Amino acid sequence: SPTVSLAELDHLVQIISKSHLETCQYLREELQQMSRQNFQQDEVESYQSKPREAMWQLCAVKITEAIQYVVEFAKRIDGFMDLCQNDQIVLLKAGSLEVVFVRMCRVFDSQSNSVYFDGKFAGPDVFKGLGCDDLISSVFDFAKSMCSLHLTEDELALFSAFVLLSADRSWLQEKLQVEKLQQKTQLALQHVLQKNQREHGVLSKLRCKVSALRSLCSRHTEKLSAFRAVYPDIVQTHFPPLYKELFG
Amino acid sequence: KHKILHQLLQNSTS
After folding, report:
1. Do B4 and A241 touch (CB under 8 A)?
2. Chain A contacts of B5, Cβ < 8 Å?
3. What mean pLDDT value characterizes chain A?
C-alpha cells in the first residue's frame, strides 16, 4: 500500500469533501428547507396508475439527473482525470449508479421510509408501477441501513470516491493506477473515521455495503433488460441518451 | 460509443 503523509491525507479529505459538496445535487440547507411532505394517497395512486413505461421513463430521467452530478464529482476527484479515458468511462459505467444509491441516504427519511422524489417524499408504494417491487424494497432497505450509520458529509464523500475508484472493475486498462487512487482514498476514509472517533465497526459495515451496491446495480440491469424486451421502442426513443449509454 | 459520457468528461468543470 502507498505511503502517504498525514498532510497528504488531510489534503485528499479536503479535496474530496469539497468535490462532494459542490456536486451533491441538494445541499444540507436545501434539504432542511425541503418540506418533509409525503405524497398524499391520491398522489400515490396517480403514480401507481401511470402506465409501466411512463413510470420507467420518469425514473430513468431522475436517475440520469443524479448521475450527471456524480460525473461532475468524479471529475473533481484528485487523479481521476489523469486516468486514461477508457478507465474513466469504465469506472463511471460501473460505479455512477452505485454512488447515486450511496447519496440516496441524504434524501431519505428513515422514520417514514420515504425518499425525496419528484418534489415530495415517496414511499415504496409510489414505485409499484415499475413492476420491480423486490428491487425497490431492496433499494429502500439499503438507504435505511446507510442512514443508520449516520455518516458525516466528509465520510460520505470519501466512501463515494472509494466506491467510484473500485480497482476490480472489468475492462480497466491501467488497473494499477486505479488501485493506487483507491488505496489512498481508503486511507483518507480511515483517517477521517479515526479523527471523527467512529467505532471500529463502521469500516467493516461500509465494506459490506460495497457488495450490497453491486447486487443492487446488477439487479437494476436485469430489470432493465426485462423491461427492454417488452418495450424496446420506449427505451430507444424516450429514455435519456446518457442512461442508455450507461446501462444499454 | 459513449459519446455523451465523453462529452461530459471533456466539458470543463464549472
Report:
1. yes
2. 71, 89, 92-93, 242, 245-246
3. 96
